[in-house]
Amino acid sequence: MQFKHPEILYALFLVIIPIIVHLFQLQKFAKVPFTNVKFLKKIEQQTRKSARLKKWLTLITRILAFSCIIIAFSQPYFSKYTTQQNFETSIYLDNSYSMQAKGESGELLKSIAQEIIENTHQKNNRISILTNDNYFKGLDETRLKNTLISIKYSPYKIDLNTVLLKLNQVNSNQPNTIHKSILISDFQKFNLNNKLNFTSNNTSTNLLKVTPKNNINFFIDSVYVEDNLLTDLTINAIIKCTKNTSEKITVSLFNNSTLIGKTTAVFSNSNKSTIEFSVKKEQNFNGKLTLQDSSLEFDNDFFFTITNPEKINVLTIGENSSFLKKIYTLDEFNYKHQTIQQINYNIFNHQHLIILNELVSIPTQLISSLQQYFNTGGNIVVIPSKDSEIATYNNLLNKLALGSIGSKIENEHFVTTINYEHPIVKNVFEKRISNFKYPKTSLQYSTNLLNSTAIVNLDSNKPFVSSSTTNNSSFYLFNSPLNINISNFIQSPLVVPIFYNFAKHSLQPTNLYYYITSENEIPIYSTIGKDQILKMSNGDTEFIPLQNAFQNKVILNLQNQILKSGFYSVSYNNSKIKTLAFNYPKQESELEYLDLQKLSNNNPNVEVTTSTEQVFDEISNQGKINWLFKWFLAFSILFLFLEMLILKYFNI
């Protein structure tokens, strides 16, 4: 038994008062004269023993009555916990789009929210709600109801270990509080990157799994485009099902809101089908694929954009090599050549790639301009001259913090090794070549490029072409001149893919689509003014994403800002410069679930629950207080009543 006001119990010392009264009855008897004794009542004889018993019984009833009154005012109760302790229930409510699936009572998220409202009536229990995109702390019954009703679906999903970590951090900041955590989710497999870690979990935790009635779901997995004809494009889409099936699903293709065509995805006892559409090449194609499936609605649409590739600006400074002009053709590139005397530094910020082609010396002003260009996202290729002034080259490398070039070596070496994993040559060859006509060079410079990776190597195991990437910029260095009198590299089959990809990697094409994730970094190749910004809009909402402006591009960093799939326009000074397509992640569409019994791993603090009613009954019983003060008041009245009976009727 516990007491809400135990300090009142000190009043029990006052029980000594009736004891003193009964033990020391200091009565003085006075003589009263009567004229005739016949007027006196008949006095019944009592024995000395019975009179003593009556006194003790009276004393005991008075002590018990007085004690019960004092105990009643101290408010006694029975409970596992004290009244000074608070109760805090933290609920993780999964509001990802997979909770849109239909259960026995409708959509999983809405039905579980309604069950929580119906089963939560504890006045002394604060409830906090954690979702994938928000946290609501210390809700009373009214605010809890309003919060649960207003929760929307989120494209973001939290790893279950992150959920436990967040709940533990919240609970650890609340002293003298009894905590309970409830995880309510469909517990899909992709939602757990590693084994669930309960080692730091000292809080009682319930796992409540909600499951849909139907675990068959059709969804559009991915889209890719093939450009095989001069006038047409082939749009391919992969349609998937969560189980092997032989059903047929109709898929429609739209360009914005215009219906382009329909086709049927046929499943032959499989879970994947590929469809294709043939469309005319257009300047811009904002495509949307749509299928009809009632299991989950969020993944029935798939958005993508097709735009004509932008031309890449390439500037060569130095020797006017004809092979570069043949590689950088007008259909894909804006190629310019300038001599050292003709340099126009004002065009640097518009270039995607600058090639220093066999300069004898690099002037100080050029070094300063290249440093600014490189530090703001520019890309540089350096081809040394046979008469290079090493000091000026090292001055450039020093300004770029990339290392140094050493002495000249006049020995003949062959180019023998290709780094097939390097992005510049990764997808160039259908198979790895072990024996080909090796290009050679009769002059090399020893190089020490920091944080570099070799693209091709000499037979001496020294790099012939190497690269270093930093701050969204790439630097490529040849250790030999490409003059035909020194090297026959420009006559080898390697020269075209290497130089072509130097430029292509300087301007990566915009993706057909992006998935909505917590962090998305998207390059927008556009030059904006100082203190200017890019805005994004989907027609309903407009926002300013985090962005970093470089020499000829802006990197957009989208942090939980895209909440809805569809098309988003990127604008500068109220002019649209790009359209991007976003889709919900496809992991949720797979409908693969975890086994909660294995997940709990027999942890004593973790319990698998089958219903919200069960878990909230446990919470109610946990915080239940059985007050006893009414009983003690009743007993005090009873003992006073017994005293009255004893005094009136106890005659022995």
Automatic annotation (TrEMBL):
Q: From what superkingdom does this record's organism come? A: Bacteria
Question: Is Cell wall biogenesis/degradation tagged as a keyword?
Answer: no
All residue ranges annotated as the Aerotolerance regulator N-terminal domain in the record? 1-76
Cite the entry's keywords alphabetically. Membrane, Transmembrane, Transmembrane helix
Q: Which Pfam families match?
A: BatA
- List where the protein spans the membrane: 6-24, 56-78, 627-647
How is this protein named in the record?
Answer: BatA domain-containing protein
Organism phylogeny = Bacteria, Pseudomonadati, Bacteroidota, Flavobacteriia, Flavobacteriales
